[in-house]
User: Fold this.
Amino acid sequence: MTLLQVVVALMAAFIGMVALGPVYIGLLRRLGFGKRIRSDGPEGHLGKAGTPTMGGMLIVTVVLFGAMALRIEDAATLTPMLTLMGVGILGAIDDFVNVRTGVGMRGRWKLVWQTAVAILAGYYIQRHFNITAINIPGLGEVVIGPILFVAFVAFVIVGTSNAVNLTDGEDGLAGGVLIFSFVAYLLISLVPIPGVKLAQPNLAILCALIIGALMGFLWFNVHPAQIIMGDSGSLGLGATLAVVATVNGQLPLLAIIGIVFVAVIMSVVLQVLSYRLRGRRIFRMAPLHHHFELVGWAEEKITLRFWIVAALAAVLGVSVFLLGTGGAS
Assistant:
C-alpha cells in the first residue's frame, strides 16, 4: 500500500504544479516579481533579468497542502514540514527584498534565521527520538552526546540550505539535483534496520511529494526558464533535505548523496580562502557551475552533467546504506 501511496503522492504533486504553474507565473508577472541579475555574474545571465522568481513558494505550498491532504503528519514528517515552511518563508522575504531593491536580505540576518530553525529542528529530533549518536558509513554509530548532536545537525542543516541556494544558478540545476537526493532518501525511508530504525512510510510519501513538485517545477524551469526557484525554494528545500537525512538516521551519508551541493559550496569556500591568503583565484568564477560556464560549457550541458553526477551519487549513497545494514544481501 505504501508504494502505491508514494506513486500517488508523486503524481498528484507533479500534476498540481503543472496545472498551477501558468497561473502562478502569470500572477508573478502582474505583480512585477521579476528577478534582478547581479552585474558581477556571467554576462550570459543578464538576459534572464525580469524572469519571474519566488517559484519555490509554489513548491512549498503544493507539498504542504499535499501532506495535509494525505494526512501524513507524524513525528517523522512534522519537523521536515515545519522546516520547509519556516526556511521557505525566510527565502520568500529574501526574494521579495531582491525584487524591490536589487539586493537580498543581509547575510547575517538570513544566517540567524536559518540557525534558529536548524537548532529547533535538531533539538526536537534529538529529544523525540532520543538520539545521541551519528551513523557514519564504514564506522557505524559514533556516540557524541545530545548537545554535540544538536550542534552538528544544525551546522549541516544551515550548510545544506546555503549549498542548495548556491547551486540554484543555472536553469533547472538545483531542482534536478534535489530530485535525485530526495529519491535516495525516499528509498532509505522504506528500508527498516533491525534494532536501529523502522521503515518510515510517511517520510517516504513526503519525499515523493517533494520529488513530484520539483518535477512539475522543472516543467517550467528548464532552459530557457519561465520561472526561477529563488531563495524561497532553494533555502527551504536544502534545509528540508538535511532534516530528512537526520530523521532517517543517515545524515553523514548526505556528504555522498549530496556531493554536488558539497562541491558547489566548497568551491566558494576555497575561492574565498585562496583570494584572501594568496591574492589569487582557483576558479574563473565561483560557485563551480559558473566556472564551467566561463570555460565554455553551455548552460544545458552544465545542468545535465551535474544531474548525471547527482544520479550516480544517489545510487552510490543508497548502495553504501544497504551494504552497511545488510540490506543488499
